[in-house]
Amino acid sequence: MDELTRASDLWFEDCGLIIQAEKTIFRVSRDFLALQSPVFRDMLSLPPPKTADMMFGCPFVFLPDSAQDVTVFLKALIFHDFFEPYPAPTTVDVLIRGAATQHKYEVQSLRKRALVHISAAHPHLLKQPQPAWLSHAIHRNKALIPILARQLSIPWILPIAFYHDCKHMAEQCILSSSQSLRDKTLVVTACRTLEGTAVSEMLDFLWADDEPEDEDEDCVSPIRCMVSRTRMRRIAEKRRERSTATAPVFPLEIWRPGDWDDLFVCGSCLASMKDAYERARKAFWDDLPDMFELPPWDELEKLQAEALK
């Protein structure tokens, strides 16, 4: 008993249930917890055996979760401003820990709230903006996101989560992560495609034919346009060079918005190149789920809509 620590913000003297997680104990309302969680409702509805543990004269429950996970879980249940609905900010620790325990103990309202936050950081639309504070925080914990997605059955975030795994994690880190062997294989295999074929296809709009007369018939300066396109292709290709200490440049990042300003081509060529580039981006985005053996975007969107309705 002396080794246990009371959770200062989660110890209510007028409540009648003691919960222990690791070396931390919580005193909360039995009825409130049963009302919020069907798992706890079933657990607490069972008649206690004659040898049931008691603490401070209250029923006692030991949970196999970490003290931090239980703290986040209970605070999200009890304090209305601890974990607010999107787009209110939260922290990745609260989000990840909360989502796991909310799923485990079937608190559907909070689980859906967590899924909305996570989904917002992994948009399905190519041009849909991400909330910067959330996406940056989640990407710092990128190795956990695919695991969480599998655990919570939220496959619609996996194409983007896996893409960021490939982009930000060295292959050795991917292989040593706690992801499943299947997911590790998918990610490592995709890394090769993303660094190779996919980047080349994204830059195809910059290729110019060797013979100026074979260029767009509307081009007003074939030689100048061909030279500029070739020069920018070389610049973009240089970005693919990296050491083991630098991150790869992937299809969605290989061409930067400011690069258009350095592309000295005629208006006709510029318009056709922008069209070709947008088509390449869309084609890549459409193919992204299949790269990780996931259903197409429209099916993933239906799964998301069903889960969040």
From TrEMBL:
<dbReference type="InterPro" id="IPR011333">
    <property type="entry name" value="SKP1/BTB/POZ_sf"/>
</dbReference>
<protein>
    <submittedName>
        <fullName>BTB domain-containing protein</fullName>
    </submittedName>
</protein>
